[in-house]
Amino acid sequence: MSAKPHFERVALMGLGLIGGSLGHAMKRAGLAGHVSGYARSVETRARALEIGFIDSAHETAAEAAKNADLVVICTPVGALGSVAAEIEPVLKKGAILTDVGSVKMAVVRDVGPHVPEGVHFIPGHPIAGTEESGPDAGFAELFDGRWCILTPVPGTEPQALEKLSAFWTACGSNVDVMEPRHHDLVLAIVSHLPHIIAYNIVGTASDLEAVTQSEVIKYSASGFRDFTRLAASDPTMWRDVCLNNKEPILEMLGRFSEDLTALQRAIRWGDGDALFDLFTRTRAIRRSIIDAGQDIAAPNFGRNPTHAKAADEDDVQ
Amino acid sequence: MSAKPHFERVALMGLGLIGGSLGHAMKRAGLAGHVSGYARSVETRARALEIGFIDSAHETAAEAAKNADLVVICTPVGALGSVAAEIEPVLKKGAILTDVGSVKMAVVRDVGPHVPEGVHFIPGHPIAGTEESGPDAGFAELFDGRWCILTPVPGTEPQALEKLSAFWTACGSNVDVMEPRHHDLVLAIVSHLPHIIAYNIVGTASDLEAVTQSEVIKYSASGFRDFTRLAASDPTMWRDVCLNNKEPILEMLGRFSEDLTALQRAIRWGDGDALFDLFTRTRAIRRSIIDAGQDIAAPNFGRNPTHAKAADEDDVQ
Ligand SMILES: NC(=O)c1ccc[n+]([C@@H]2O[C@H](COP(=O)([O-])OP(=O)(O)OC[C@H]3O[C@@H](n4cnc5c(N)ncnc54)[C@H](OP(=O)(O)O)[C@@H]3O)[C@@H](O)[C@H]2O)c1
Ligand SMILES: NC(=O)c1ccc[n+]([C@@H]2O[C@H](COP(=O)([O-])OP(=O)(O)OC[C@H]3O[C@@H](n4cnc5c(N)ncnc54)[C@H](OP(=O)(O)O)[C@@H]3O)[C@@H](O)[C@H]2O)c1
């Protein structure tokens, strides 16, 4: 692992869950001399300053980005391009410009044209989050043990990549490097499809006439409640993801629907062996996720009072 | 609420997650003079006795059910009928016969014909569970604050219904009464569809060529991992549910697919407003589920270390 990096001045563009968590993580590890912040609303800027995960708040993106050695754009994907355009004139030679957007080809497309000569543009995406948003949602531990994917464009200076890598490591992450196109395909299946499916099933359940909303809520512990967490995520963020990762998402949706049609057929024709087969095959993957430290072992995600303790013990193994 | 009930002798047919949890819950509340147990395998019977949630283990269902005042069948749905046939000759006059199966019309169909004159048959379904199974998976608190649905058939004696209701209340549940047919429709959307969709998406992710299994596992914290919990549930149980609640499940799958086609279209045509609309509409339901005490408020189901504490505080509100 590389030595702990230090930046004189870091600028956060967007002060919500991810921007906020980055601010907290930088403070925890002492990675920045000064953290300047920009957000759209005066309320968010004031709150971020009050919480203390930034040292100064600015009314424009350009003011916040001025003199920064590291600029991290943490807005929804649809706003990355306009923020980049706004800060283009003030970006310092030698600075690293990165982002945390959930898609990467669109970032290369939208931010790329606004990167001045001598600025190191390295798109990134921390694979960590919660269903909450806004400046109060962030916390220093969000990235601990999670992965951060960097998707450098051709010609990226190895030293800049290494420094940004060390930065994310110091924030608690493991770092992977891959092509933007591959990132978007991988994320389409591990993140975008799950969210879209969750939104869809919650929508379907809300629209029924024969089953009331109150029944759905009362009996949700039988499975449904798990989907409502993802379906409570920020609508702007997810609209932007869907609009900006269209092809991979449609590809994954196509495969999902095909598989679902086969499953539906097995149910219709009472093919117990096919059902048993699929339901057995899918078990192993959860064990691997737990072994990889990407989820806790406790049943019900540890939500059962007595099992919460067992969870922590399991986690330590 | 009715007075705490007491049964001289309770028989549990099936000693897995639900049978075991019932045993623990009865011991906790002192609801039975003696709990006899039956399970298919000698290992399960021995383990249940060792853990102590039953007082005696029996090699046949009939032996275990003999002289019982309350018999609860806790096997997978596909085995309920054969267990009922086996115990039919020994069931005591005046005894209550119930079950915990996840579908109810099929139970009326399969168990109904084996109920002797004078035995009170009241199908039931506790809306509580985890992704684990077997005799070690159970715990006394499983039913606390969850709902138990009873689906009495026409002609059920009110006193028997009241006694079984009081039993579940004493095990920690809230009790609802509804028609078996309505139960199966409600559960198709709140439980069966979520599990089927979870199994399906995990299957889709496992079959990709362009994204490796190891990538799916590493980056699963971005959404996918939530589905793997449901998809790690017992294959036999879920095969039996699919085989025995066909029509309602196919009806819900049809609606889900229709909605997904519309959503897919919105993504294909870049209809940001339609996407934003759906993604906004689905948020409220999670709040209602939390307010109803059916899930915890903490982000990420409380899996983030620092947020676990906040979760408990929220829960108390
Ligand atoms: N949430 C996750 O789980 C997650 C995980 C990994 C990556 N990401 C990515 O991280 C980024 C931020 O997500 P988040 O969850 O931190 O969102 P968030 O909590 O909603 O915060 C977004 C921030 O961006 C600002 N903003 C929004 N629209 C803007 C605009 N048009 N121009 C300038 N600023 C704008 C907001 O300002 P105001 O507060 O003033 O509105 C807010 O400070 C997104 O690109 C997302 O794809 C999210
Ligand atoms: N899991 C949930 O979340 C949940 C929630 C509500 C209701 N339910 C319902 O509760 C019932 C039991 O589920 P569970 O989770 O407790 O299952 P489980 O942990 O797998 O236990 C099933 C028990 O039934 C026995 N059994 C299995 N097949 C049998 C057969 N053909 N004949 C006789 N006994 C047999 C098993 O014996 P061996 O151990 O010897 O194999 C075991 O003791 C199912 O009807 C299910 O639909 C489940």
UniProtKB/TrEMBL annotation, chains A, B:
Family matches, as InterPro entries: 6-PGluconate_DH-like_C_sf, NAD(P)-bd_dom_sf, PDH_C, PDH_N, Preph/Arog_dehydrog, Prephen_DH
Pathway(s) of this molecule: Amino-acid biosynthesis; L-tyrosine biosynthesis; (4-hydroxyphenyl)pyruvate from prephenate (NAD(+) route): step 1/1
Presence of keyword Amino-acid biosynthesis: yes
Keywords from the named record: Amino-acid biosynthesis, Aromatic amino acid biosynthesis, NAD, Oxidoreductase, Tyrosine biosynthesis
GO biological process: tyrosine biosynthetic process
Gene3D superfamilies in the cross-refs: 6-phosphogluconate dehydrogenase C-terminal like domain, NAD(P)-binding Rossmann-like Domain
Catalytic activities: prephenate + NAD(+) = 3-(4-hydroxyphenyl)pyruvate + CO2 + NADH
EC number: 1.3.1.12
Molecular function per GO: NAD+ binding; prephenate dehydrogenase (NAD+) activity; prephenate dehydrogenase (NADP+) activity
Family of the protein in this entry: Belongs to the prephenate/arogenate dehydrogenase family.
NCBIfam families recorded: PRK07502.1
PANTHER family from the UniProt entry: PREPHENATE DEHYDROGENASE, PREPHENATE DEHYDROGENASE [NADP(+)]
Protein name, as recorded: prephenate dehydrogenase
Species this chain originates from: Parvibaculum lavamentivorans (strain DS-1 / DSM 13023 / NCIMB 13966)
